[in-house]
């Protein structure tokens, strides 16, 4: 709509100016259209409109939201030759772009360069830099930045504290996160839903479910209303602590607190049931979601499949998840290669069983023996998936090994496979 209004201006005999272009670029930023934002910026000289720091800030922000940190930095570097002086908003947008790109060192470098550019950092700039540290779990650096703010005569706000608490959460420092929360009143900063959610999440990551529940119970007296993110974090804490009954109780209390559960809340509750060995309850929660107009996502299905991985009911669940497009990357180039990214261990085992039983026998009937590959990846969680798949293959006495050129890929020797043996690996849903 913003672009359409811009295009209608000439026939209305209205000449767009720098404010008009800045507003439209900002609209592109909010709509995630970073290329369109850059295109508008490049059109401005031809329309005899000179961009200013607001225009550049909007374009850099568009790049930030599009995950284009290099493009954002390039725009920032081009500003002096366009005789436009960056301000704290421009730098904050560029630092935020680095944060979203996981470039915390670059973000901190930008912050350090601001004084020589005679730009004074503000609480938004510091919050963006702390967030950049948070993204990669650099909690000590995040705290150091927070401690430097008074010296720079910058007053931290609830966004700054929330970012610092989030950094502690990612670094597994739940006590430090709680300490920051407790220090906020004396800094005359009022915690909000985001702050409490981050602190509860920090407790969740460290298995401190009782502390997480205590924080949730303290929110009303701090006149902070819990939302679905807060409840999801608390339910997740109960899940990690093996407290499936408490998790379900929290879920049941949400309507009374006029909080509507979402797919994240249900996924956390399903995960709690899975960890507690309550597979029927896990499936029941998953089946309730569409009735409540909540669409299950890949996390919901993964948690449910972890609960029923070794059962016949798991096969039907995998077919359902696959049928509704939960794993779009599953087919990688050909039917002889499968990609298990975005899958939990239970989902991966069911997927490989189905592929070996339903797809590979058709490939074996061809003129040549196919090269069979399973892409698991090699991150921390993907290593668990790879181990689970290896356990399945070894249990089925199928010869397999890690690819010599890529340790995130398992290859299977197709010459020793018999279609009749493979078909027994997966029981089709009745």
UniProtKB/TrEMBL annotation:
SUPFAM superfamilies: SMR domain-like (SSF160443). Keywords: Repeat. This is Smr domain-containing protein. It comes from the Eukaryota. It comes from Polarella glacialis (Dinoflagellate). The keyword Repeat applies. The keyword Repressor does not apply. Pfam families: PPR, PPR_2, PPR_3. PPR repeats lie at residues 17-51, 52-86, 87-121, 122-156, 157-191, 192-226, 227-261, 262-296. Gene3D superfamilies: Tetratricopeptide repeat domain.
